[in-house]
UniProtKB/TrEMBL annotation:
<dbReference type="InterPro" id="IPR042274">
    <property type="entry name" value="YycH/YycI_2"/>
</dbReference>
<dbReference type="InterPro" id="IPR009996">
    <property type="entry name" value="YycH"/>
</dbReference>
<dbReference type="Pfam" id="PF07435">
    <property type="entry name" value="YycH"/>
</dbReference>
<protein>
    <submittedName>
        <fullName>Two-component signal transduction system YycFG, regulatory protein YycH</fullName>
    </submittedName>
</protein>
<feature type="domain" description="Regulatory protein YycH">
    <location>
        <begin position="3"/>
        <end position="422"/>
    </location>
</feature>
């Protein structure tokens, strides 16, 4: 009897030991396992900070329609922008119906009392549901939303809410939204004493100059060695190749890291990475955030700029860097062909990262220059954009920062930027 008990106890101890070993290796369900493969994303360098995708999902601007064709615009991080967006994130939207976009006179609607959130080139509904109370609905949950328009009807007995598809051909009305006429009026009242804007051909022009902060910041540089250790499973086996144009390439025969020292820019490619899932815009954006968190991190505030398909298998995800100070709001930093800074771009293939581009520059947070500047508005601004209309139709006009390197560090200069229908972006001088 005693021998049987001893054997049973010994067997129980062995089983407990095996279970404990399993959890030590693989941790608890929902956690990352300790054992990694070379295809896993491994955080090896303490470089930039980690961010969550929820913090990158916000409108590029909020336009208030004051009635009688009067408007004003708020930019990210400004007081009224934050107040309006936080209130709308708490509202529920349900009961979606689909319409062709050309069936509605949007110019007439924008002349009424309303609020319009501009999400740029579009945010997948699955991601927007992470920050707004949007009910699941198979009718449009596979869409990306470029803007949200809320307005009071002409006789002011109803609030109507429309989500615009980024494809530009359809809109979805939320027929069940817990917004009242008074809610919309309260939000619009925030803009009564603000700078007046005129809606012209789909974009907004301020009738008065707007204030921004020209800023200069000291900088640091991520080293090539840091990026190697972050991006290669075993950096010690990489080979070094120097190109004729002066760029450096490091490869382990599967992946390659191109470093352009004269531009402080990297381009990492992993064409052999195995596909792990479907080409889903929302899931691709989440994978992209995780990858950056574990391979360099973020060097400031970012916004999901776009997630778009190249074809049925490939996808591009772009994050735009924003910078701002207090009441003045936050504005995008323009990535220039002559100076790549302000964007992090990832190429995807069925959920797996195959390409990664970013700047090696990061701000240290110490300013060597700060001064308030005014960007022209009204007729002076109209004169600046007049010549662009001959090149292509203007689809968006917004204030932004143009980056440049000086002896002291990174200089961010406020400028107006016009986006054209042909895809070009023009900085107004």
């Amino acid at each position: 009897m005693k021998e049987n008990l001893k054997s049973l106890l010994l067997a129980l101890l062995v089983v407990c030991s095996l279970i404990q070993s399993y959890f030590m290796i693989y941790r608890l369900p929902g956690s990352d396992p300790v054992v990694k493969t070379e295809n896993d994303y491994i955080r090896t360098e303490d470089m930039g900070e980690e961010l969550q995708v929820e913090g990158m999902l916000y409108p590029s601007q909020i336009a208030l329609h004051l009635g009688d064709n009067r408007h004003t615009v708020f930019y990210p991080e400004s007081t009224f922008y934050n107040l309006i967006y936080s209130r709308l994130k708490g509202r529920q939207f349900d009961g979606f119906q689909r319409y062709a976009v050309e069936n509605v006179d949007w110019k007439d609607i924008r002349s009424r009392i309303g609020v319009e959130l501009d999400f740029g080139r579009g945010i997948p509904v699955a991601l927007l549901q992470k920050v707004m109370q949007i009910a699941s609905d198979p009718l449009f949950e596979g869409e990306s939303i470029s803007r949200l328009l809320i307005y009071n009807t002409e006789n002011e007995d109803q609030v109507r809410v429309f989500f615009f598809s980024s494809q530009g051909d359809v809109v979805y009305e939320a027929t069940k939204a817990d917004l009242t006429i008074q809610d919309v009026r309260q939000q619009v009242d925030f803009g009564k004493d603000w700078i007046p804007y005129t809606l012209e051909n789909g974009y907004y022009i301020p009738e008065k100059p707007i204030d921004m902060i020209e800023t200069g910041m000291t900088i640091g540089l991520y080293t090539t060695e840091q990026m190697q250790r972050s991006l290669f499973f075993d950096a010690s086996i990489t080979r070094y190749i120097r190109e004729k144009d002066g760029s450096e390439i490091y490869t382990d025969s599967k992946r390659s890291l191109q470093v352009k020292q004269d531009r402080n820019w990297i381009n990492y490619t992993d064409p052999a990475a195995p596909a792990t899932g479907e080409n889903n815009p929302g899931k691709n954006a989440l994978s992209a955030v995780d990858f950056v968190n574990q391979h360099g991190g973020w060097n400031g505030q970012y916004r999901l700029e776009r997630t778009e398909g190249v074809d049925t298998e490939r996808h591009t995800v772009v994050f735009k860097q924003y910078y701002g100070l207090g009441q003045y709001g936050a504005f995008p930093i323009i990535d220039l062909s002559t100076f790549h800074y302000g964007e992090i771009t990832l190429e995807m293939r069925q959920g797996t990262i195959t390409g990664y581009e970013r700047s090696l520059i990061y701000p240290k947070g110490e300013a060597f220059k700060k001064r308030v500047v005014q960007l022209e508005g009204g007729d002076k601004l109209r004169e600046q954009i007049a010549g662009l209309k001959q090149e292509s139709r203007i689809v968006q006009l917004y204030p932004a920062y143009v980056p440049s390197l000086t002896k002291e560090g990174l200089l961010l200069k406020p400028m107006w930027v016009a986006e054209l229908e042909n895809g070009a972006a023009r900085v107004l001088q």
